[in-house]
Amino acid sequence: METNKPDQYHHFLLVVHPPQSHIIPVRHLAHRLLSIIPSCHVTVSTTIAAHNRMFPSLSFPDQEITMRQVSYIPFTDGYDAGFDRSIHDPAERMKKMEIVSPKSLSAIIDHLAECGRHVTCIIQTLFLPWVVDVAVAYGVPSILYWIQPALSLSIYYHYFNGYDSIISSHKEDQEFTVSLPGLFPLNIGDLPSFLTITSDDNTLREISTSVTVNKRHL
């Protein structure tokens, strides 16, 4: 994508999964970027439902908000009224997001370009692998913003690269020791719980589904 902007121009688009635990680190990152590059532009985009929780007095659901040099423009995930675990299927949510959200984010990028605010870098949090495809389509570099401890990243990486079977086969034995490359020995009970889920009714099923979808990053 041609920007026709000078070399010092930067516009960061931060795409964030809707939970508050993702949004807060991204908002801190936005202001950190502005402190490092005062002339840059920063746009934060999360789902419409989360956007409305952040700004409850909007004139319309996808209204753009600008606060302290940071703009907020939401994308749709197909659940604009909010996701409810009691009536919605977590697996279906991720599938729907993969279909509708790339089009919505692309529309945001096009809108920003029309306003002269060309995106030069896209940064996304966990569970949004489709953002990478959008970035590639626009020729914009993308970065995964890791908001969890480095230990978690290492555990996820090894789980999806050869250690899933040993963890799964001993998931009932909380004292079983797993030796992952570069890490101190860990008991099964020390691992993230959604890696050893035994029931489809477990409230962490959504997290497990999300990590599986997102393993392209790991």
Automatic annotation (TrEMBL):
MF terms in GO:
quercetin 3-O-glucosyltransferase activity; quercetin 7-O-glucosyltransferase activity
Protein name per the record: Glycosyltransferase
Entry similarity comment: Belongs to the UDP-glycosyltransferase family.
What superkingdom heads the lineage? Eukaryota
